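Sample entry (274 residues):
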Amino acid sequence: MKKSEIVIIQSSLQEKEIYLDKVDGIRGEKTNEAINAFLQGVSSNIDDEEWIKWSTKRKAIASLQLLCSENNIEAGKIDGLYGPQTDAASGLLLQLNSTEGIARGFGDIVSLRENPHGFPLENMQHLTGYYGSPCEIQLVRVPCPWQLRLDWDLAKATRHISIHEKLSVSLSNILDKVYVYYGDEGIKKHGLDRYGGSYNCRKKRGSMSSWSTHAWGISIDWFPSKNKLKWRSDRASLAHPDLDYWWEVWEQEGWLSLGRSEDRDWMHIQAAKR
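Predicted structure, serialized as tokens:
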């Protein structure tokens, strides 16, 4: 068992006034005695009538499973065996105790699949047919209702986003709706003023031949420092439930969030489908 799990057991049993010693993450004699006392009080929930014969470690695991169950976290059978389900449940219990809440899982995020403007699939043939050749497109500067600061150099600011001319109206509608909903306070709170750029004539990261959608001027990056390429929804700031409206406004216009669709690169939004 992890030391952090022993800490959870000790602190939980301390709250129940069963464990009266210090919380140190060490499963010593007093901790084992408290676990025994706890299990005896809830023995009807243990899936083995002869649990009393278990090793002290197995009893500790059973107490962890029971504590998960008490907090409405599914840990499977209360059998004192530490498998994948217990491990996952333990992680949620640790999260609950450290943050007073459990982060929403990616499976609970439902993206909208709208495409009112007929945005193309993300491949060379479709992108070129719809937008033209990469790095040879017509850009327009769309005003942003709030000030944008470059995420890697906050001293540099702009009030415009360079985007493909076909996206100017769509982007303007999105920015206006977002600003009305979040206002200056919400924009700053969620880092929506931390800009990562749009048009960039470059290939995809790690590729020598495939063009990035940025080369067509059809992608924008937001708050890169808190939404890095490989960060998942449990870590990326833009995956927070308070940002659901932000993403839904983009999706209603047909844009695609890689975070909401693939649970990676949460900074990135593009006007191309996958």
